[in-house]
Design brief:
This protein has 190 residues and is mainly beta. 2% of the residues lie in helices and 24% in strands. It starts with a strand and ends in an 8-residue tail after the last helix. The model has no long low-confidence stretch (mean pLDDT 94).
């Protein structure tokens, strides 16, 4: 089945049903205040799209291609990005809530997370090379076996990362954030 193609369209205040968005390709489209939580997302592609104030919480984004997609002020809780199409997976997150979401094994090199809540997010075995975590809450986020070389954690907080299980070469941390790297060693930093 060939996907239906949509170019340069703005969508406002829509709530999508289970199969409503399946087999579609959106390019240069903007979605404002839309809800995608009920969607199954079968064979859906977003290219150069922007999502503003949208809700994806618990959405099943299996078989979704996200190519140069920006999320602004979106609720994306408990979403498994690891099931997305990995070809040209490129996203940006600004002021989003991504609590309990999963990026397991994805290559998200250089992805910016700006002013985001990333509580209990699964970054296990994820390539986080050069990722920017700017002012993000990383409480209970899991980084085991991740590659976070040159990642920037300088303004983020509440993270605990084990340098023995996470590659951190040239990663940037604030002095205050160093305690998140030393937690396992029962060292007190004052």
């Amino acid at each position: 089945m060939m996907p239906e193609y949509f170019l340069d369209i703005e969508y406002n205040n829509l709530t999508y049903g289970v199969d409503e968005i399946n087999f579609k390709e959106f390019e240069c489209c903007t979605f404002n205040n839309c809800t995608f939580s009920a969607c199954n997302f079968m064979d859906v592609t977003f290219i150069d799209c922007i999502f503003n104030d949208c809700v994806f919480s618990e959405g099943k984004i299996n078989h979704v291609a996200l190519r140069t997609v920006t999320f602004n002020r979106c609720e994306i809780n408990d979403v498994n990005f690891a099931m997305c199409n990995k070809l040209i997976f490129e996203v940006r997150f600004n002021n989003c809530t991504l609590d309990f979401s999963k990026f397991y094994t994805l290559k998200i090199k250089g992805t910016p997370f700006v002013n985001c809540s990333l509580i209990a997010v699964d970054f296990m075995a994820t390539d986080l090379t050069e990722v920017l975590f700017e002012n993000c809450d990383l409480y209970r986020a899991e980084f085991a076996k991740a590659i976070a070389n040159k990642a920037n954690f300088k303004t983020s907080y509440n993270y605990t990362i084990d340098p023995k299980t996470t590659k951190l070469k040239k990663a940037v941390f604030s002095q205050e954030g160093l305690k998140g790297l030393l937690y396992k060693h029962d060292i007190i930093v004052k």
